């Protein structure tokens, strides 16, 4: 019998809130984190997209100046979210040799890399700072979180584009089930609201160009969706072997019941139009959770708001859940947060856990005319109450490269009311 | 040309920026490693920033000889002369 893994701590810094309580309150209300960028580089480089979803609380307001100086912004977000999750877990004493980290990023230290490149070109190699490499390396967030917590059972960095954050939970589950760790700090972080990624995603026509109305630009499933909105931030979850959590009397949010990762092997960026890889991922996650399609009541969809991406996910959900897809309520929270790339899976997993814990699905905003080819039951307007009994929810994440990652969260107790 | 006092003050500012140590703690007789607890990567960062601030070159092989803040001030003063 595999070890059961539960969620005991949550953390986040996002465009709709600098901590989990704020983010969740906004996610239930339905707010947009997207705004016009005021950075001088937007005009300087004549970028075609003038808006993005920045974190509401800059990391510099949470970390000390000296701490922040040694971290790329992506790592700063990771440390902010991980500290919140750790505090939330209430863990005080732990065997640090049994504590691991699985912290993802999609792009890594792009700010550090390109700032250093500017320095090299403008001032020469003598001016390139010695911290450049540890700050730009993609394992920077995982390494910094490991240092911060004293986690010595390994620090892992899944890199699978926009599936990275969800893949981190997959790795964490395996680490605990296989007995290599008792507790894992899992999550994802991204800080890519930089002119180069903005220009690159624009070049591939992936970003919404709704410059005159950033707040309504991220509109998953809407017939007038025209691309995703770049977001940033981090999400973090403390995953713990159930016996470890019970022994210390921890508050348990839910069970990380199953995970899966598959690859399309179809195209470097386009999703398989039949959603075959995503279908296999969904079925595998359910199997891993020893669950049936009928157990699923809610899905936090990947749904980025691109014309080509949203539809295959529906195809996959229909293939994996069968007719039961009509009984499942779906939230597309990127309509609020924008797309946090490698952090999105972690932030959306935090929301999925809270949806199960409080039996409330967050809202999807900006859905005015639903694409008739995606007839999902989308939660709009007000949050949807989930059934009182045992429930399961899924979080999907898909990434360039054909990566598909799915996690299944199962309730471990009755509905817990929201704090006032 | 900066005076030794000006170099010390500038260096203290760089050390504060890098480590958070109070500028007053950066005194001539203090050892970078033993007293100020500055690791090698911070030391190299301080060197890079000092080169820029004082417009001097501090060769890599020279850095290991800069044991105290006073050593660094003397070297920078000499390099500027």
TrEMBL record, chain B:
Protein keywords: Cytoplasm, Fatty acid biosynthesis, Fatty acid metabolism, Lipid biosynthesis, Lipid metabolism, Phosphopantetheine, Phosphoprotein
Post-translational note: 4'-phosphopantetheine is transferred from CoA to a specific serine of apo-ACP by AcpS. This modification is essential for activity because fatty acids are bound in thioester linkage to the sulfhydryl of the prosthetic group.
GO cellular component, one term: membrane
Positions of the EAL domain: 1-81
NCBIfam families found in the cross-reference section: PRK00982.1-1 (NF002147), PRK00982.1-4 (NF002150)
Function: Carrier of the growing fatty acid chain in fatty acid biosynthesis.
Name by which UniProt lists this protein: Acyl carrier protein
Organism: Arthrobacter glacialis
Gene designation per UniProt: acpP
């Amino acid at each position: 019998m595999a070890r059961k893994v539960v969620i005991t701590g949550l953390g986040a810094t996002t465009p709709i809130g600098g901590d989990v309580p704020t983010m969740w309150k906004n996610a239930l209300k339905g707010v947009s984190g997207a705004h016009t960028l005021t950075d001088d580089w937007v005009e300087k480089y004549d970028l075609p997209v003038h808006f993005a979803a920045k974190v509401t609380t800059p990391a510099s307001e949470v970390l000390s100046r000296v701490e922040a100086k040694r971290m790329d912004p992506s790592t700063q977000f990771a440390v902010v979210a991980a500290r919140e999750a750790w505090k939330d877990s209430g863990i005080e004493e732990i065997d640090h040799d049994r504590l691991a980290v699985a912290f993802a990023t999609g792009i890594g230290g792009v700010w550090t890399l390109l700032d250093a490149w500017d320095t090299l070109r403008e001032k020469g190699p003598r001016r390139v700072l010695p911290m450049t490499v540890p700050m730009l390396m993609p394992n920077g967030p995982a390494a910094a979180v490991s240092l911060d917590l004293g986690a010595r059972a390994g620090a892992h960095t899944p890199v699978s584009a926009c599936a990275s954050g969800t893949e981190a939970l997959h790795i964490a589950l395996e680490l605990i089930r296989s007995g290599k760790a008792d507790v894992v700090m899992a999550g994802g972080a991204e800080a890519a609201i930089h002119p180069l990624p903005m220009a690159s995603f624009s070049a591939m026509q992936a970003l919404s160009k709704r410059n005159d109305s950033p707040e309504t630009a991220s509109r998953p499933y809407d017939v007038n969706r025209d691309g995703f909105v770049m977001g940033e931030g981090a999400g973090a979850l403390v995953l713990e072997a159930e016996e470890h959590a019970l022994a210390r009397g921890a508050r348990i949010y839910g069970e990380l019941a199953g995970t899966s990762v598959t690859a399309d092997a179809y195209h470097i960026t386009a999703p398989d139009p039949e959603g075959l890889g995503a279908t296999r991922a969904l079925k595998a996650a359910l199997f891993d959770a020893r669950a049936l399609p009928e157990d699923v009541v809610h899905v936090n969809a990947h749904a980025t708001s691109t014309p080509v991406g949203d539809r295959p996910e529906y195809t996959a959900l229909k293939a994996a859940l069968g007719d039961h897809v009509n009984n499942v309520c779906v939230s597309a929270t990127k309509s609020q947060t924008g797309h946090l790339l490698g952090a999105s899976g972690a932030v959306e997993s935090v929301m999925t856990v809270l949806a199960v814990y409080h039996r409330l699905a967050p809202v999807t905003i900006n859905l005015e005319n639903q694409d008739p080819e995606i007839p999902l039951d989308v939660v709009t307007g007000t949050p949807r109450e989930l059934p009182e009994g045992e429930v399961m929810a899924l979080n999907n994440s898909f990434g360039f490269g054909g990566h598909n990652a799915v996690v299944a969260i199962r309730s471990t107790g009755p509905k817990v009311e929201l704090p006032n | 040309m900066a005076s030794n006092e000006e170099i010390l003050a500038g260096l203290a500012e760089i050390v504060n920026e890098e480590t958070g140590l109070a500028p007053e703690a950066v005194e001539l007789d203090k050892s970078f490693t033993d007293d100020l607890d500055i690791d090698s990567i911070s030391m190299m960062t301080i060197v890079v920033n000092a080169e820029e601030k004082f417009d001097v070159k501090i060769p890599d092989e020279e850095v290991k000889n800069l044991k105290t803040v006073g050593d660094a001030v003397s070297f920078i003063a000499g390099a500027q002369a």
